[in-house]
Fold Hydantoin racemase (Dcg1), putative.
Amino acid sequence: MAGPNDNHRFSVLIINPNTSTHMTNALKPILESLDYADIYFNYFTAPSMPSINSGEDSITSALHCRPFVEPLVPKYDAFLVACYSAHPLVGMLKEAITEKDSTIPEYRKKYVTGIFEASVLTSLSLVSSFHLMGDANLHKAQSRDTFGIMIVNSGGGGGSTARFAGVETTGLTASELHTAPAEEVSRRISDATERLIKSTSHPVSAICMGCAGMAGMEEAVRDGCIRAYGERQGRRVRIVDGVVAGAGMLVTACKAGF
């Protein structure tokens, strides 16, 4: 990939904290299609950890990636950790940026997020709204729409909030999204989406794709939405790709200077 040029105002490093080059390469055309002409995207693939399937794996991958990506902090304006978990590398990079801020006067602002955080925040912005209830006292209430997360791996959902519909799994690991037969992957994604929607009593207005490896697989999610809700309502469900959401948040932060 060509390096940054004079037309690029900001640079963003996309970090894949597992060793799957298939996954890294699948992200490139998706981010290029966003047409951020003044943003330079570069990519890092972890030297170890073939697939991240647990919290322990996230910690291990963060420790493996840290010595490679922390020295890159001065080179980029923003960093996106492309793993659908509360990945420790996000916090590690924020600490590294804070240390640079304290030692270099007028250090250019830098930003970090993970695709998990980005997809949840984006989904909340899509489903949450306030409206005035037209009773005698006119009080403010929130919409009852919810969002759900459809993940790979064998993890399950637990707990609930007013906005969270739940979690459903495909039963595949991140690496299997690109090694299993495409028809099997699509079927599992569609089935998991349908189960997620049918498991909640409130309308699901947004679904987060719970793995960077799902990038580009929105049609399988849409198929599950249509099977659960029918054509019209199924096409109204917002499908949130965490990589796209994260890139958008970082680009906005860079340009706004938050």
